[in-house]
Amino acid sequence: MAELVVATPEGVLLRRTLAGAGSRFCAAAFDGTLLALGLIALVLAAALAASIDPTGVSGFVYGVIAGAGVLLLIGYVLGFALLWNGQTPGKRLLGLRVVSADGWPASPWQHVMRSLFLPLDALLPVPVPFGLLGLVLVASTERRQRLGDLVAGTVVLRDEDRSAAPEPFAGLRWSQLPQRKLALTAGLAARLDETDHEFLRELLTRPGLEPDQRRRLIAGAARDYAARLELVDMPAPDAALKEIYLFLREARESRARS
Hints:
The two termini are 42 Å apart. Strands 1-2 form a two-stranded antiparallel ribbon. Helix content is 59%, strand content 8%. A hairpin with a 5-residue loop joins β1 (3-7) and β2 (13-17). It is mainly alpha-helical. The chain is globular, with a radius of gyration of 22 Å.
């Protein structure tokens, strides 16, 4: 089974399972079915409107919809990838996620580049007709990448471990901690982003690490965040990362509500 191996600055190797051609094909088939059903519904609605519209405007709309399949394909994949952090409905159903080739969450720009090359992967008749270029590349490349992945620098991982891992410190809120030892403010939150939230969640829930490896990772991460946030009088690394994670999670929830 192919794996993505990520070396941390502390010299610890983290392993994630790469999605194979079979699971990715099934996810794409599910997405394609949803997209086709939506497109058919739009075309039928436009055709019905055209049949009873004497102005001809609806006929123009019908033509636009009928010819916009490629743009709808790109918009569907890109929209869901940005909304669901690297997942479409098909990928969510199969437990897959698009990430950067270095193991971090993919950036919006990477999702854009990956989506723009999707029509070539899906439609270019090489080496066999109708859409198997991407499947062939996924099956034959070392990191299971289609053309869009190669250009954007992304890979698709199995997401079972992440989805199965319990949310760290469930029920706790940073603002309700009886003692907060770090001087965390809204201004400091602007220095961090979704990548930091995902990294800390991964670090705090990652299975399979030896105790010494986990200690080194947590100590290194605590030093990094202390420097980035200009924090002094840091508590123990475990306590520091717990407080930073709760702070980030609460800030993320606040942005989602606004």
